[in-house]
Amino acid sequence: MSCGMSLVKYLLFLFNLLCALCGIVFIVLGSIFLSHVSSFKEFLNELGAAQIPIGFIVLGGLIFIIAFFGCCGAIRESYCMSMTYAVALFVLILADIALIVYIFVARSNQQELITKAVNKLWQTANQEQSAFKGLQAALHCCGRTGPLDWAGLTLPASCCKDPALQTCTAFEAYSTGCESALQDFVRKNVDIIGYVGIGIVVVEIVGFIFACCLANHIRNHKRRAAY
């Protein structure tokens, strides 16, 4: 094997080793999110996002399996494994591109979707408002539009700026409403997720090209060795 192909081989191995680690991270994050999702389950259902943790776990598993084929194909110089990896990576690239397009297209509808979800959750939550309290604690917000939404009710601990307090006044509570806080949170993070996704696709395309080059070299090398 030439020096150039040897370099491609080991770069591809390192690339897939990192991908395998990323897959494990996705699985761990999805599992952690899944174990803590109970406070937000009702809200996530309203947004149609209740399956996000499971999606992380499935995506992490797919990335790990694809990376495994890539590592084995590179180290064992297996044409079959290298091509299996290349095809699987190509499918993953198409799926990532579709997801990125969906993220940017859905961004235009996010404000209306979040407003409806927050309003419905506020109106239909149970007496303890457990789902909304979880949202308040996570986003450091209070009420639907502000602490005055709790008028006539005791402000819960999740509204209080001081975590040591079990209840507080409107002056001691977060002044931002959860609808506004969530809009800001999504607005700031959707673009980041989209651009990170574009970066990941670029890296995946490089890995795909390396895999095709390695597979082609392995096939040609075996053909020459047969004569």
From TrEMBL:
Keyword terms of this UniProt record: Disulfide bond, Membrane, Transmembrane, Transmembrane helix
Q: Does the keyword Protease apply?
A: no
- From the Swiss-Prot or TrEMBL record, state where the protein is found: Membrane
Cystines in this chain? C141-C178, C142-C159
- Please give the coiled-coil regions recorded for this protein: none
One matching Pfam family: Tetraspanin
A single GO cellular-component term from the record reads: plasma membrane
What topology does it adopt in the membrane? Multi-pass membrane protein
List the transmembrane segments: 12-34, 54-75, 87-105, 192-215
Its primary localisation, in coarse terms, equals: membrane
Q: Which PANTHER family match?
A: IP01817P-RELATED, TETRASPANIN
What does the sequence similarity comment in the record state about its family? Belongs to the tetraspanin (TM4SF) family.
Output this protein's name. Tetraspanin
